[in-house]
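Collaborator request, handled under Task 6.
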Amino acid sequence: MVDQKADPKVDPKSIIIQAIKAINSHDIEGCIRLASPDCEFMSATRTFRGHGELRTLMENYFSATSDTQLTVDRVLADGSTVVVELTDRESHTGNLKTQSGVIPPTGKRFTLSGIVVATVEGDRIVRWREYWDRMHFVQQLGLMPMRSSPSA
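C-alpha coordinates returned to the collaborator:
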Protein backbone atom coordinates (compact mmCIF):
# COMPACT_ATOMS: atom_id res chain seq x y z
CA MET A 1 0.00 0.00 0.00
CA VAL A 2 1.44 3.37 -1.01
CA ASP A 3 1.60 6.07 1.66
CA GLN A 4 -0.57 9.03 0.65
CA LYS A 5 1.77 11.64 2.24
CA ALA A 6 4.47 11.14 -0.41
CA ASP A 7 5.05 14.26 -2.52
CA PRO A 8 5.20 13.18 -6.17
CA LYS A 9 7.69 16.00 -6.92
CA VAL A 10 10.22 14.80 -4.31
CA ASP A 11 11.95 11.44 -4.35
CA PRO A 12 12.09 10.27 -0.69
CA LYS A 13 15.09 8.02 -1.51
CA SER A 14 17.10 11.03 -2.70
CA ILE A 15 16.38 12.88 0.58
CA ILE A 16 17.68 9.90 2.60
CA ILE A 17 20.77 9.56 0.36
CA GLN A 18 21.46 13.29 0.93
CA ALA A 19 21.20 12.70 4.70
CA ILE A 20 23.66 9.80 4.52
CA LYS A 21 26.11 12.00 2.57
CA ALA A 22 25.75 14.70 5.24
CA ILE A 23 26.43 12.12 7.98
CA ASN A 24 29.53 10.91 6.12
CA SER A 25 30.77 14.52 6.01
CA HIS A 26 29.86 15.14 9.68
CA ASP A 27 27.71 18.00 8.32
CA ILE A 28 25.36 18.73 11.21
CA GLU A 29 23.74 21.72 9.48
CA GLY A 30 23.11 19.62 6.35
CA CYS A 31 21.41 16.96 8.47
CA ILE A 32 19.30 19.55 10.29
CA ARG A 33 18.19 21.13 6.97
CA LEU A 34 16.89 17.74 5.81
CA ALA A 35 14.97 17.07 9.03
CA SER A 36 11.51 18.36 9.89
CA PRO A 37 11.51 20.72 12.91
CA ASP A 38 9.48 18.10 14.82
CA CYS A 39 11.43 15.08 13.53
CA GLU A 40 11.89 11.91 15.56
CA PHE A 41 15.21 10.07 15.50
CA MET A 42 14.98 6.70 17.23
CA SER A 43 17.81 4.43 18.24
CA ALA A 44 17.62 1.20 20.22
CA THR A 45 17.77 3.03 23.52
CA ARG A 46 16.39 6.53 23.04
CA THR A 47 14.21 8.84 20.96
CA PHE A 48 15.45 12.32 20.03
CA ARG A 49 12.82 14.89 19.03
CA GLY A 50 13.25 18.12 17.12
CA HIS A 51 16.25 19.96 15.78
CA GLY A 52 17.75 20.74 19.22
CA GLU A 53 17.92 17.13 20.37
CA LEU A 54 19.04 15.95 16.92
CA ARG A 55 21.88 18.51 16.98
CA THR A 56 22.97 17.31 20.46
CA LEU A 57 22.97 13.68 19.29
CA MET A 58 25.05 14.49 16.22
CA GLU A 59 27.53 16.69 18.10
CA ASN A 60 28.11 13.85 20.58
CA TYR A 61 28.45 11.17 17.94
CA PHE A 62 30.56 13.17 15.49
CA SER A 63 32.96 14.24 18.27
CA ALA A 64 33.44 10.56 19.17
CA THR A 65 34.03 9.18 15.67
CA SER A 66 36.14 9.92 12.63
CA ASP A 67 36.52 8.79 9.02
CA THR A 68 32.82 7.90 8.89
CA GLN A 69 31.84 5.90 5.84
CA LEU A 70 28.20 4.86 5.63
CA THR A 71 27.74 2.77 2.50
CA VAL A 72 24.28 2.11 1.10
CA ASP A 73 24.00 -1.59 0.35
CA ARG A 74 20.34 -1.54 -0.64
CA VAL A 75 17.51 0.99 -0.63
CA LEU A 76 13.79 0.35 -1.01
CA ALA A 77 10.96 2.85 -1.00
CA ASP A 78 7.19 2.64 -0.79
CA GLY A 79 5.59 6.07 -0.94
CA SER A 80 7.12 8.20 1.79
CA THR A 81 8.78 5.25 3.60
CA VAL A 82 12.39 4.43 2.78
CA VAL A 83 14.30 1.39 4.06
CA VAL A 84 18.08 1.43 3.75
CA GLU A 85 20.51 -1.40 4.45
CA LEU A 86 23.85 0.15 5.41
CA THR A 87 27.42 -0.75 6.23
CA ASP A 88 29.04 1.67 8.69
CA ARG A 89 32.84 1.89 8.88
CA GLU A 90 34.51 4.41 11.18
CA SER A 91 36.92 4.89 14.06
CA HIS A 92 36.20 5.60 17.72
CA THR A 93 38.51 8.57 18.38
CA GLY A 94 36.70 10.66 21.02
CA ASN A 95 34.55 10.42 24.14
CA LEU A 96 31.18 8.83 23.38
CA LYS A 97 28.43 9.81 25.82
CA THR A 98 25.92 7.03 26.42
CA GLN A 99 23.07 6.52 28.88
CA SER A 100 25.45 4.25 30.82
CA GLY A 101 28.26 6.81 30.96
CA VAL A 102 31.14 7.97 28.79
CA ILE A 103 33.12 5.54 26.65
CA PRO A 104 36.64 6.99 26.32
CA PRO A 105 38.28 6.80 22.88
CA THR A 106 39.66 3.38 22.00
CA GLY A 107 41.18 4.38 18.67
CA LYS A 108 39.67 1.21 17.20
CA ARG A 109 38.10 0.95 13.80
CA PHE A 110 34.69 -0.73 13.63
CA THR A 111 32.34 -2.02 10.96
CA LEU A 112 28.62 -2.50 11.52
CA SER A 113 25.69 -3.55 9.38
CA GLY A 114 22.39 -1.86 10.02
CA ILE A 115 18.97 -0.87 8.79
CA VAL A 116 17.32 2.55 8.73
CA VAL A 117 13.57 2.95 8.28
CA ALA A 118 12.72 6.57 7.50
CA THR A 119 9.64 8.57 6.63
CA VAL A 120 9.86 11.62 4.37
CA GLU A 121 7.11 14.22 4.07
CA GLY A 122 7.64 16.80 1.36
CA ASP A 123 11.40 17.33 1.30
CA ARG A 124 11.98 16.67 5.04
CA ILE A 125 12.67 13.61 7.14
CA VAL A 126 10.01 13.28 9.84
CA ARG A 127 11.03 9.91 11.28
CA TRP A 128 14.34 7.98 11.29
CA ARG A 129 14.63 4.65 13.08
CA GLU A 130 18.01 2.87 13.23
CA TYR A 131 18.71 -0.78 13.93
CA TRP A 132 22.37 -1.74 14.63
CA ASP A 133 24.02 -4.66 16.37
CA ARG A 134 25.13 -2.82 19.52
CA MET A 135 26.82 -5.88 21.02
CA HIS A 136 29.05 -6.25 17.96
CA PHE A 137 29.90 -2.53 18.28
CA VAL A 138 31.13 -2.82 21.89
CA GLN A 139 32.96 -6.05 21.06
CA GLN A 140 34.86 -4.34 18.25
CA LEU A 141 35.80 -1.52 20.63
CA GLY A 142 37.25 -4.15 22.99
CA LEU A 143 34.70 -3.42 25.72
CA MET A 144 33.19 -6.89 25.66
CA PRO A 145 34.77 -10.20 24.70
CA MET A 146 34.02 -11.58 21.26
CA ARG A 147 32.01 -14.77 21.22
CA SER A 148 34.15 -17.74 20.35
CA SER A 149 32.98 -20.27 17.79
CA PRO A 150 31.63 -23.53 19.17
CA SER A 151 34.16 -26.34 19.12
CA ALA A 152 33.67 -29.02 16.53
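The cover message to the collaborator said: "The longest strand covers residues 65-78. The chain has a mean pLDDT of 91. Please let us know whether this matches your experimental observations."
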